[in-house]
Amino acid sequence: MHILIASRTQIPVLTYGGTERVIWDLGRALVELGHRVTYLVNTGSSCDFAPVLHINDHIDLRLQIPNDVDIVHFHFCPDFDLDQEFERPYVYTEHGNSAHRPRLPLNAVFLSQNHALRHGSSQYVYNGLDWRSYGAVNFEQRRTYVHFLGKAAWRVKNVIGAIDVALKSDQKMSVLGGYRLNLKRGFRLTISPRIKFHGMVGGAEKFALLNGSSGLIFPVRWHEPFGLAVIESLYFGCRIFGTPYGALPELVPPDCGTLAVSADVLAQTVQTQRVDPQECHKRAVELFGAKNMCRNYLAKYDAVSAGEQLNVASPQLQPGFRDLPWS
Question: pLDDT tens-digit profile of 110-133?
Fold first, then answer.
């Protein structure tokens, strides 16, 4: 099968990476299973295992799709109606909470069961990562701090709440994905020397920081569609302390951490809860690997190639997905 992966992102991943990391690992897994992959992505992209086409905004996107492609996997919503104005088999992955789009394409797929249900759908594929690129985990290393991982400038990620939990539990914290002074969403300046900011880190620096942490503090205030930060942290044997919103209850069982809407509750469990780091690691490897994601998408590809529609009606986001309670 020849799959075109279309995304308005640049590959490969250089720092934080979300959608970029997922589509890279999906494409590589498809190639390793014997399929052909072509990327249609932003200018500046390159890839060593699949051809890359660069999106030209001056040409109709439909004219940029090679004739021999069997299925197009969109990771963004194009500016034409996929159900009425596109004649090829397609799958569309919604990576966020689609508040700015009233209705999504019929072949929309979501990132978790909760993500799908909140759009009136049952179609989802868990994100997966190629853990080979993360290297081995040193379970003997001393864990001397907790961490936050995410785009700290996004208020829904609640880095302020994460810092509060760390300070209440008398922990040092490394913030991956943010800076001590933030002016993008109002004014935030963190004074405490116990909180260290590392900016938008990636690669070996990021992996080393995760391997030195005892747990992820992740008190998001929206329904998280998936949570790559969660599975990356699990891979490195970290406990997860977050809110029970969105996909988090699907990713974090009780033996891998605690979910609560209270900083005091999370702070207490950070101090007292003990989990087996190798069980956290095992969960990430067995459930959230790129090969699992790839096989699940192949089932969707086969269905739409056979003429099926994944959803009976166009999925639509239900209201109330952000600014969720936190105390």
Answer: 999 999 999 999 999 999 999 999
Which tens digits make up the pLDDT trace of 219-228?
Answer: 999 999 999 9
Whole-number Å distance between alpha carbons of 129 and 142: 25
Residue whose token pair is 């997922």: 22
Peptide bond into 277 cis (omega under 30): no
How is the chain split into domains, by residue range? 2-129+291-305, 131-286
Nearest-5° angle of CA 142, CA 214, CA 129?
A: 110
Identify the band that residue 185 occupies on the pLDDT scale cut at 50, 70 and 90: low
Q: Under CATH, which number does the domain 131-286 receive?
A: 3.40.50.2000
Residue 204's H or E segment, with its range, is helix 203-211
| Assigned CATH topology for domain 2-129+291-305 | Rossmann fold (3.40.50)
Comparing CA positions, the residue from 154, 161, 157 lying closest to residue 263 is: 161
CA–CA separation, 141 and 236 (whole Å): 11
Q: Give the sign of the dihedral formed by CA 18, CA 21, CA 24, CA 29.
A: negative
CA distance 27 to 7: 12
Per-residue tokens: 139: 């379970």
Residues 6 or more apart whose CB falls under 8 angstroms from that of 44 comprise 10, 54
Report if pTM > 0.90: yes
